[in-house]
Amino acid sequence: MLSSTLFYPVLATLAFIAPPQQLNAQKPTHVYIEEQAALAKTGSRIAATNAVDAIFTQAGILPELAHGVGFQQRVVQAELAFRKGTQPAIHEKDIVTAVNNLATTINAPAWARTNLAEVVKLRLFASPMFPGMILNHAPDAVAKHQLLNPAMSPLEATQIALMLVHQKLANPNYQLTRAEIVAQPDENALEDLHQHRTRALQSAMSGATSGRSLRDLLASADNFLTDLGLAPVQEDAK
Questions:
Q1: Exposure of 186 by Cβ count < 10 A (0-12 exposed, 13-18 middle, 19+ buried)?
Q2: Is 199 a residue whose pLDDT tops 80?
C-alpha cells in the first residue's frame, strides 16, 4: 500500500520507489503488523521490532537502513516504554506537527500540509486493517465508547504518519486545501489536479535533497521523529 519515497526529502536517500512489500506469501503485511503489534502490548521487544520492521518495509524503506541510522530503535524503544507507562501517548496533533514541519522544510505547497481532520480520516480508513492498534476498546468514565483511541501508541503513530506522507503524494483526496474541499471539484478536474500536484511534490522532494548533505537529511528525519514524540535512543535500550 505504501511504496514511494517517504519522509519527504529525508528518506529519499534511504527509501526506494518499489512495489508494495509483503513479508509472507500467505499473510498480508497489514495482518502481520496487527499480530505483532498485539504481542508488543505485552512488552515483547521481539514483537515490537518485528512490527516496526514490517511498517518500514511496507513503506518501501529497507529495515537494515532504518536500523543503521537508528530509526527502528527509536520506535521500538518508545513502544516498549509506552507499554511500561514511561512514554507518553502520541496524539493526532503530534502527527500534524511532524508532517507540517517536514513540509515546511522542503517548501512544499500549502495543500501538502495536513490537519487534524485528515489524520482522523486516515485513522478511520486504516482501522479495518489495524483494529487492535487503532480502535478504542475501553469505555470512558461514563461507560461510553469513543471509536478511535485518542491516545496512540508509538507503533500506530509511526504507521499513520508514514501512511499520511504517502497519501500526500499519491491520493488526490489528500492533495486539496480546505477551500478546494468545500468547492468539491468534479472528478475530471480532480484527476488533472492530482497529476499536477503529484509532480509538484515529487519536484519539491527532489529539490530538497539537491545540495543538502546526508547530515542535513538525517537531521530532518530526526526532527520528524522528535515531533512525533519519539525520543533519541538511550544506550541501555539498544
A1: exposed
A2: yes
